[in-house]
Queue: 4 jobs
Job 1
Amino acid sequence: MTALIDREQLHTEIKAGAVTVVDALGGYYYAKQHLPGAIPLVENDVAELAGSLLPDRAAAIVTYCSNPACPNSQRVADKLTGLGYTNVRKYREGIEDWVAAGLPTESGQLTG
């Protein structure tokens, strides 16, 4: 099982630029609202896109989804680990928790 990261630690790492955040929902949900600096990467695209979106396989990566019951973040984390990424964690709660805590989010168009 992928190691978990809590909201406070993730917020600190995002502010420090010490982590790459991966939105495992993608699509409409990413465009509507995502964690600061997050990149969209859904389970079906990991094998094809991970190398170009996440070139450093030792870099700190955190996957997230909507809430703890959403399986997408764990599935993306597992696929990344299977591809040789060595520092992958999963946000313990998800964007619903992040928003409820009043932390900033971003919105925007998908690229590519």
Job 2
Amino acid sequence: MKQTAAFSIVFLILAMSGVSATAASPVQAATDAIDAREVYERHCRVCHTMQPPATTAPPVQGVSARYRGAFGTRDAAVAAMVDFMKAPSAAKSKFGRGAISRFGLMPAMTISDKELTAVSAWIWDQYDPSAGNGNCR
């Protein structure tokens, strides 16, 4: 009986302090450990501008809009972005034939899965509904 009461008190203290008893998702763990903006600056910015107009690849805000439209959750979208960046293909692309014809497929990214996850989550977070999709259909 005393153990049950002690457990209840500890659980109540944790609940009131906002500490979660569940583990962070892999996406959250990656975004906590890596500076995703810096990963973008180092590896993605050379092709992907933040906002339209597109230069050599769809803008980040357009990518974010596409993945938000295609997936219901951040975790699902991030997993799909990581999969695409590791092995790009037309079948995995969330952009239409016009965008692929205009830009081609990106090269496979050879950075760590944690960096890919972090930058993908960061891209998801860059969504701006006023930016549209960058006209990359």
Job 3
Amino acid sequence: MENRTARITLLIDPKKKQLFEETCAEQDLTLSQVIRRLIHQYIVEYTGSRDLPEWLSGPAAGPGKTPQ
């Protein structure tokens, strides 16, 4: 697992943000948890043949887990 954090700033339509916040709340998840999960899935899907670090490809990153 990473031991540092970095900030990402993005612009999003306010209506989509509101719906995203509501949807996350219904699932008892934070926006950050969902975004980290989406980034993780994107990396795994599109890295091609590159080797992934253990913290990204190991059992702790499996289904149902929230990558940090």
Job 4
Amino acid sequence: MARMFRVLGVFTLAIGLMAFAGGLMEMALLFFFQTAFFVLLGYLNLSERSYILTFWGYMIVAFLGFTYYSVFVMELPY
């Protein structure tokens, strides 16, 4: 399970680098933060239950953040 968090770190690093190359600094910084979070968790060697609960918490925060942004921050398309 710890190895999967390191894999998530690699994928978020790739997305962050592409965002950085495209000039999307806020998105790049967000994904670099996620990369550091996932890699750090990958090397903590927690129990499998802890990894699953951490991932659930991450997904809840991510979905709530995306929903808030898409409903309250983005403008309506015309």
